[in-house]
Hints:
The chain is an alpha/beta fold. It contains 16 helices and 20 strands.
Amino acid sequence: MACRKRTEGRGADAVIVTAAGGDAALLNRAFDACRKKGRVVLVGDVPIRIQRDRIYSKELDFLISTSYGPGRYDKDYEEKGHDYPYAYVRWTEGRNLEEVVRLISTGDLAVKRLTDAVFPIEKAGEAYASLASEERPIGVLLDYHLNQPADVRPLIYVARRRAAPEQALGKKRIGVIGYGNYFRALLLPLLRAHKGLYLRSVCDRDGLLVRSAVERDGFERGTTDYREIISDTEIDAVCVATRHDQHFPLASEAARAGKAVWVEKPMTMTSADGRRLADLVSEKSVILTVGFNRRFSPHAQLLKRSLASLAAPKMILYRVNAGSLPQDHWLMDPIEGGGRLLGEGVHFFDFLAFLAGSAPVSVRSVSPRGRCRDEAIVTMEFNDGSVGTLLYSGSGSATAGKERVEVFGGGASFVLDDFRTLTIHGMNVKGMRTAKIEKGQREQVENFYLALQGKADIGVTAEDGYNATWCAEQALAALPDDPGHEE
């Protein structure tokens, strides 16, 4: 082999395999080209079917390169900007790119001859089409016009078929920030079907989602700049359905602009921010509601009415069999999602307070060792003497159902099973059974609409959002920071 000839028969210190193909011999020939105790680095896409003798006899090191370098596929690095220490990781994904750009700028890395065509960005479609043509170019450049002054005007995507003006006449216009799975699956169908609401505008950082929302889902217009939603004088109410860490700043901006606000849970990530937002809503005299939809379930409303006749303090047990989540899920991230007790638990803390009909005054919690952000038993005491316990687990079987609420007090007992059946014991009140799970999303949308018209009080307030976050914060504070910690 040429490599062995150039090394006087010793072989290369290292061989980098950048080839692509289906021949397993490509990789094995690289081992032949190495000296003893050398290394082979795989960059390309070839089958990894190593012939043991070729690597074992020479005691070779075999490494698989991360594309672009360390940091690739690492959310903390690529999305959150958490760099690796220079002293420990010299060549990261970003530093590799910096070096390539530097070499091109000095002329040490000549790429001009690899460029067969230059297309303005407006003709990007033609550029990609050329790569699929019979006379495929080696390289194509897209010209972003970086030498021209930037156009800072926000881009608005408008449907090809504009809605007739009369379609929005007399309706409350909704602007949506955040177009994730939950909103599209549960809230979007309800907003679209409501005769008194109009989908004015949508914002998401994913431009393709924005386009789909406008072309297929009925929005009049879309943008990737949330400020367009906040400043749009045609919008009456803003729905904040982003990831959790953005709820407080976006809801605050919307409230300052005088908009009504629907913010998904949790309202804020800290009780301090919850207090600020509740005070701001009061100061601006705007409507703000939080997506605690379980309060509005027909089952919950009947249970609440039945409990009103009981003078004695209540004992409430809420069991949530939430199912497991992978540890790299965004909800488990302490910054972005807050963990499950905060990110999801606020739903259940709010519901316990709703049933108690009293404000929480103290919270205690305990968690299985090593799972303090994923599972816990939390006990809440309320101002009227009632006690509520949340058992939140991510390790149960899905066949056991997800949510079960039991209430005891005044000689009566109540069992609410998965928001499908409500059984009442010890009272001359008939329970309820529905054909499907009814968690109150539709009823909460209707309450929000009536509140916008001034025909009803808002069913969940900013104070309720603050209380739920305070409970979650207290529950987490009672748990050890170190999962392996023992009292």
